[in-house]
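hey so u asked for the seq, here:
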Amino acid sequence: MSAEPLEIHIIADSTGETAARIARAAITQFPTRQFSLIRHRKASTTRSLMQALENVKERAAVGPVAVFYTLVNEESGELVRAFCQDIEVPYADLMTQAMHALEQITGLEADEVPMRPLGVEAEYFVRMAAIDFAVRNDDGSLPAMLRECDICLVGPSRSGKTPLSIYLGYLGYKAVNVPLVPGIDPPKELWEVDKWRVVGLTMDAERLLKIRGERVKGLGGFGTKDGYADLVKIYDELDEIGKVQRRLGCPIIDTTGVAIEEAAGRIIEMVDDRARKLGQRLRRPPGVVRPAQNWAPPPANG
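ran it, structure tokens below
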């Protein structure tokens, strides 16, 4: 098997970011191979499109390549499709079928205008406001605002609270995070947050030690005397924090080795499920759609 990266050529009439995201998602399903993404941006004229295709042809003569393209003009898409078929290069049209599907449900024809901006909608402002909320409430800096959150994360230092809060903000949820420190009482406002909104974070002690050790190095050794980066004391710290989390009645997620997207997904599902069981509801940001729950009739009174 060749160790050389396999090339994916992205041909787009705009930045190519849409195709690049799909390519990166597809690449993760082939962990044993390396890939290289080559973008041919703003290929909105016949000349620029042919330049991109000639480059693809040259690279295909050297080794295997694939083409992903997002072109709103159907004639341009057909040109790429015919060219790839002629030189026997695998390709994926990531735009045409999507537009055709929308044409069928709208009864309208697509405008086919290259580089049309996506526009700024309500979802954008909700996300920006939620990210701002997460940043301002990092490490429980504004206890009075805890009750305004959608989701509240509590856990030890360096367990992933801040990046998770900001990522949840990116998804549109107002998230806060509160550090739990042995010997220091959490803010009283934390106990006033709806229990179903609170999720505890924890992490393997040895992994936490490694992360904190790197931080201590960056701080010039600060934290080595108080047990911040001492394995035995970290074990004791996690035990104490676990007791507080149990008093809060919150579920606990172990973030050791878990991707931020996966951890955020678990948190949202967990909070949403706990809310529904209590007859409450987690606020659903614009653009976020969750599958409807299967309805079942209530049990008959016995």
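The chain has a mean pLDDT of 86. The two ends are 67 Å apart (CA to CA).
lmk if thats what u needed
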